[in-house]
Amino acid sequence: MNGITKSLDEMNLQERAALMAAVADVLQAAAEEAEEDGDTLAATNSLFLACNLRGCSSDLGPNDLKAAELLLEQGITFIHLLNGRRKSGTSLH
């Protein structure tokens, strides 16, 4: 990592789309892991967030930044919760 951090406002369209795609990819992988663990609710929620991020990133303009920011926050928070669930061995509902 190069040590330079940008806000969503400061990113260009390609950077925003790449960030959203990266989070969506992690969410999709998390959905597959949750499905393997038998946690269908977590798998469904993770996949839902991934699909929403991908849909939002395909046509992201300046007026859509707040929605994108909220989706990213939800996605990253959900990933964090899923990782905590795996460490503690509990299911996430």
Q: How would you explain this protein's 3D organization?
A:
There is one protein chain. With 93 residues, the chain is mainly alpha-helical. It has one domain (13-83). Helices cover 71% and strands 0% of the residues. It contains three helices and no strands. It has helices spanning 13-36, 40-57, 65-88. The longest helix is centred in the first third of the chain and has 24 residues, at 13-36. It is elongated and about 40 Å long. The N and C termini lie far apart (34 Å). The mean pLDDT is 86.
Characterize the largest beta sheet: strand count, sense, and whether it forms a barrel.
none
- How many discrete domains? 1
The averaged pLDDT comes out at 86
State the separation between the terminal residues, measured CA to CA: 34 Å
* Helix-residue proportion: over 70%
Q: Determine the strand fraction and express it as a percent band.
A: under 5%
Tally of alpha and pi helices:
3
**Low-pLDDT stretches:** none
Strand element count: 0
Radius of gyration using CA atoms only: 14 Å
Structural class: mainly alpha
The backbone outline, from C-alpha atoms, is elongated
Question: What's the quaternary structure here?
Answer: single chain
Order of helices and strands: HHH
